[in-house]
Design a protein that fits this description.
Length: about 350
């Protein structure tokens, strides 16, 4: 299960010009998206890539400054959503921060130079907010998402607190507000409460060095629940491509594996990895060591059913049946169950 020490991501507060940047500047939608993509870029390429928050804020073509439902602060930054941020980066790419530096206020939208450097996304994946889906996603990497916001509760969270959203009250317009950040892990407290780790952009004084504990649904008291969804709009980036001097360095999708050979490739690479897995409790497992042959998301591969033998909790070999239910670059999710001997 997840560690009780919050996993360390790139700080969301590197652009700070006030103690609580995204409370005053409403930029959490952009900060959270940028941090999540940077973390996934680091997982993929093993190197830091600081991306330009300023470009995203200046140039996102879904700038809602004239929308009465949106908010523009004193720096002219505007509220939006992580979905808008993902869609803009998918369409336009985003430059490195060193080439498009932070200015501290909204600037004019600019056109990229011919030889720009950064990353390009081909897509994003929406993650269900149910607990099982979030845990599966967090086993592989951080998840950009929004949590129920309350100025008196969430904003003042300290390292001993767990945010459950219960004291939250709606805004004057009757709507509940949400704050975007990055879910970076999960765990269980000494008292037995199950939590997610959530990285905010409110500085190291918030929560535990910038990370807060968010209560998981399985630890709620059924008679005392939040007035609205505690978590929403969770998503992760799809394939990340580097851009060097204006040229997209396409990530290998291993499409050279012939369709008719894929079941055999899966058998050769997947089943040995499964055999090394110690099956305790649960219904899903995630494998990392087979991404080079299982990247491409095809119906032939994704619906591949198979049987395998592996150690059960009693250390005896048991037979399991399984199905690949999700294939993404870098990991494979398998649903399995023990075959009962009659």
């Amino acid at each position: 299960m997840g560690s009780m020490a919050p996993p360390k991501l790139t700080p969301l507060t590197r652009h700070l010009f006030s103690s609580f940047l995204s409370f005053y500047a409403v930029t959490c939608w952009a900060l959270g998206t940028i941090s999540g993509i940077e973390a996934w870029t680091r997982l993929k390429y093993g190197e830091e890539s600081k991306l330009s928050l300023q470009e995203l804020l200046n140039c996102c073509d879904r700038n809602p400054k004239n929308d009465d439902d949106k908010y523009v602060d004193k720096y002219q930054f505007y509220s939006s959503s992580s979905l808008d941020a993902f869609l803009w980066i998918e369409s336009n790419g985003i430059q490195l921060e060193k080439d498009y530096k932070w200015e501290g206020e909204l600037g004019a939208s600019t056109v990229k130079k011919m030889k720009w450097n950064g990353i390009k996304l081909d897509s994003h994946e929406n993650i269900s907010t149910d607990e099982e889906s979030l845990l599966i996603a967090l086993n592989k990497g951080p998840v950009v998402g929004a949590i129920l916001f309350d100025k008196g509760g969430l904003l003042s969270l300290d390292k001993k607190d767990i945010w459950d959203g219960i004291p939250c009250i709606p805004a004057p317009d009757g709507k509940y507000k949400y704050h975007v950040g990055v879910f970076s892990g999960y765990g269980t407290t000494d008292s037995g409460k199950k939590i997610y780790w959530f990285q905010s952009s409110w500085g190291s004084r918030w929560g535990e060095s910038g990370y807060g504990r968010i209560l998981r649904k399985s630890s709620y008291n059924s008679k005392n629940t939040p007035p609205a969804d505690l978590i929403c709009k969770t998503r992760i980036p799809g394939t990340i491509h580097k851009v060097v001097n204006g040229k997209i360095q396409r990530a290998n999708n291993y499409s050279d594996v012939d369709e008719e050979k894929k079941p055999q490739v899966i058998k050769d690479y997947l089943e040995p990895a499964i055999g090394n897995y110690n099956y305790n409790s649960g219904t899903h497992l995630i494998l990392e060591s087979v991404e080079k042959v299982l990247y491409q998301k095809t119906s032939l591969v994704e619906k591949y059913d198979f049987m395998f033998n592996a150690k059960a909790p009693d250390n005896n070999m048991r037979k399991f049946k399984a199905q690949i239910i999700k294939i993404k670059e870098g990991y494979v999710v398998i649903k399995y169950e023990e075959v009962k001997v009659v």
